[in-house]
Amino acid sequence: MKNKNKGNYTKIVSIMCPQCLEMVDIPMTRKEYRKYQRCAAKNENFTKALPRLSEREHALLDGNMCGNCYKRIFGATG
Ligand SMILES: [Zn+2]
User: Fold this and answer.
1) Would you state the pLDDT for residue 75?
2) Ligand 1 centroid, distance to 57 Cα (angstroms)
């Protein structure tokens, strides 16, 4: 994924990981943030609305564990 929007992430969505209870910050552009809010309100799929985010970020938005917990539990590398 290219980072051409780097520096334009003016919004931060903080999600608490249900496993370790750490707050994980997901930086978004204003446009992405609006999409995020709309999806959250309608309970829609974040993966389609915010394709730039990583798989783990999508999972976190859907109420799953953070990347660190995922690695710890499943031993995933990278
Ligand atoms: Zn966690």
Assistant:
1) 87
2) 12
Report how far apart, in Å, the C-alpha atoms of 61 and of each of 4, 20, 48, 65, 73 are. Answer: 23, 15, 12, 9, 19
Could you list the residue range(s) of the whole structural domain that residue 22 is in?
A: 11-74
In a domain, 5, yes or no: no
Q: How many domains does the chain have?
A: 1
Residue 52 resides in a domain: yes
Q: If you measure from the C-alpha of residue 26 to the centroid of ligand 1, how many angstroms do you get, rounded to a whole number?
A: 14
Centroid of ligand 1 to alpha carbon of 38 (angstroms): 25
Is residue 1 in a domain?
A: no
Q: What residue ranges of the chain have pLDDT lower than 50?
A: none
